[in-house]
Design brief:
The protein is α+β, with helices and mostly antiparallel strands.
Length: 306
Amino acid sequence: REVRRVSRVDPGEVMERHLMAGDGEPVVVTDAQASWFQSTERWTLESLSRAYGEEELVVNDCAPLQEWDDPPMRSRTCSLGEYGAYARGEATSLGNDRWYMNSWEPFGKHPEMLEAWSYPYFVEDLMTHDDANPKLLNYSKVFIGVPGCTTRLHFDTQQTHAWLAQIQGRKQFVLFAPRDADKLRLHAWEETDGEGLRRVLDPADPPDPLVYPHVYEARPYVATLAPGETILVPRGWWHYARCLDVSVTLMRNFANSANSDQFKASVQRLNDYVARHTPKRLVPPRSACVVCRSTRDLKPCSACRA
């Protein structure tokens, strides 16, 4: 099924139909970047590699990480300038393997990039950044890839929604509703709960229908984004993406009235987990000073300086 495409859409309709009704439903908004695309259209890989070419960034040969990868996912660093040369087909240390630059968080370090875009008109966002909440910048990333780079089937952590704005090149998306989670599982050992799940299933290489008939009961939603278009992915929706050209994508995870309770609960679960698994600092026992008999934690005694 093709993902619905709209323009000049009412934010209330997006909230009701695409984020709150049932599992919600993805949507492509063709004019979401209308007010700022002239600024970000300069974010081609060529221009970014010229402006920030010295910056060292992580690249992966597949993403996101899957614990069951065999061989395991490979990661390394390279400069943005070298990645630009690699995308042009020039000889670099990246060789002929396919590497995906899918985790760049530039906005804290390069605030001029932050000024090039604004929050889309069509959807509420309760996590907009400001000087008092600089960590919220980490929910916005830039993905850069060459043809064939893929984001494997997963849904996003912390019960967040996401929008992805295509800046350069085309990118294809395949999405599945949360209710199809079990139909997308090929093996019993794949995760059944947790935060930010992943699946072995590759929508570009579907399995044998005789062996895995349940997979074909899941209903895929498909969209191809062109530069200037934005896709909204509701919380819990499984999604897979493939770069069809040299690609630059602005991605943002966020919470609003439709998922704020689930987001807060997810963050609390994460905090509780960290608290349970963080080693406790050993505090030396308090002892009495042999001179003035007052208790003390440090030497010399804070009371008599002995």
